[in-house]
Design goal:
With 268 residues, the protein is an alpha/beta fold. The protein contains 7 helices and 13 strands. α6 crosses α7. It binds flavin-adenine dinucleotide.
């Protein structure tokens, strides 16, 4: 039998809309009869004919509707990018291809012994976390799920109505936005995820943390969480970009101290 995970499967657009400035949600239906074992956090390769030729990139599944065979993706539209402008411009019925089944879904990575689940995403990195939370709460998850999203400006905050719907539904769900360059009228948290992490991780040793998006955030948070004593299996991740980023040892040490409940180290 052909290995379906390595074949390119035709997919057609059933929905394509912005969910924030520069962030797009595209839903694709797979009309074939091949297996559909997808869940939020799985990664597939997406291939698309663009004005500059055939391009492919990995994308993380945010939603997987098995009954309708629809996969939902959320991605940052890179204005000069090779693939994302063409992906975001596909009309209903437009064609793409997907291949593979990579990574583990988030619900399999979250430690069953953890009592609290915290997801941290930069920009479109919120997408798979939202999909995971929606699926888990619908299936009766009783543990609190707290998502934290970091963006540059308020207009970049994705999925407002979808997050409100989750907060109004069953279970304990909270999403905290953090804006690094807010307008003067922004009343929420200012700065980066790493600035505020101790506030949303008060019960660190009981928590599972899943990190998604910019590798600068992922590497800094991962290193600080482990330095603060969180075991490796309680920190899981999915990097989207910025692979050359290095965690600054001084920032990591300071964040680890604050995560441990100690005062921040004095500035040099
Ligand atoms: C395992 C994996 C899963 C991924 N899943 C997702 C996903 O679910 N959603 C998503 O938005 N992206 C995701 N990405 C990134 C995605 O594969 C592409 O790199 C991205 O969409 C750029 O496509 P492009 O061809 O338009 O840009 P390119 O022409 O490839 O230009 C890329 C430029 O944009 C930068 N860039 C790439 N992604 C981002 C981003 N999210 N925000 C800001 N700058 C970025 C790169 O650093 C580079 O400078 C994932 C990457 C990996 C490795």
């Amino acid at each position: 039998m052909t290995d379906w995970t390595s074949s390119w499967r035709r997919a057609e657009v059933v929905e394509n809309r912005p969910v924030a400035r520069g962030t797009q949600l595209t839903a694709l239906r797979l009309p074939d009869n091949l297996p559909f074992p997808f869940a939020p956090g799985h990664v597939v390769a997406l291939r698309l004919m663009t004005p500059a030729g055939l391009h492919r990139h990995p994308y993380t599944v945010c939603g997987a509707d098995e009954a309708n065979r629809v996969l939902t993706f959320i991605y940052r539209v890179i204005p000069e990018g090779r693939l994302t402008p063409a992906f975001a411009a596909l009309p209903p019925g437009g064609a793409a291809e997907i291949s593979g089944l990579h990574h583990s879904p988030i619900h399999e990575e979250v430690d069953a012994e953890a009592q609290v689940i915290v997801g941290c995403g930069t920009s479109s990195g919120l997408g798979p976390l939202w999909g995971y939370a929606a699926r888990s709460l619908m299936e009766g998850e009783q543990r609190p799920i707290h998502l934290v999203v970091g963006v540059r400006e308020e207009a970049d905050l994705p999925l407002g109505p979808e997050l409100e719907a989750l907060a109004a539904g069953p279970g304990t769900f909270l999403c905290t936005p953090i804006v690094s360059r807010p307008s003067s009228s922004w009343a929420g948290l200012r700065g980066r995820i790493t600035d505020h992490a101790p506030a949303f991780l008060p019960r660190l040793q009981n928590t599972h943390v899943h990190l998604v998006g910019n590798m600068a955030m992922v590497k800094t948070m991962e290193a600080a969480l482990q330095a603060a004593g969180l075991p490796p299996h309680r920190v899981t991740k999915e990097g989207f970009f910025n692979w050359n980023a290095e965690a600054d040892p001084a920032v990591v040490a300071d964040l680890a101290r604050r995560l441990s409940g100690l005062p921040a180290s004095a500035p040099p």
